[in-house]
């Protein structure tokens, strides 16, 4: 498993907001956010803005629901924030998620906009099983934003935002 060492010193993990059920014949990849999902993405973006969370780089899945969740975040970040859309995140493994984050060693902060269960597994790999269980006893909710900071010897969950 890939190990992440700072930098980045702050990692934001955002699970996409709630999506519509697939229509007959529609691919999972193409499912858009539903009305609750749009609202939740905006609420989380507003709270992140109030707290001054502004990642230098946002890496998002190319799935429609992740791209739409990313758009809510786009309006609260600085003009210099870079956006990347990566096909490998959709159906990606824990190692892919960790490798994407670890390879950003020229950035102090990076956000990953992605899917469950792998986004939850990524958080668990960073902060540990016990901390994950205490923080998210019912799992990583849609539109949930975990803020994880580097400490001297590990990673620590600093904040968790949800609608």
TrEMBL record:
<dbReference type="GO" id="GO:0016787">
    <property type="term" value="F:hydrolase activity"/>
</dbReference>
<dbReference type="Pfam" id="PF00300">
    <property type="entry name" value="His_Phos_1"/>
</dbReference>
<keyword id="KW-0378">Hydrolase</keyword>
<dbReference type="InterPro" id="IPR013078">
    <property type="entry name" value="His_Pase_superF_clade-1"/>
</dbReference>
<protein>
    <submittedName>
        <fullName>Phosphohistidine phosphatase</fullName>
        <ecNumber>3.1.3.-</ecNumber>
    </submittedName>
</protein>
<dbReference type="InterPro" id="IPR029033">
    <property type="entry name" value="His_PPase_superfam"/>
</dbReference>
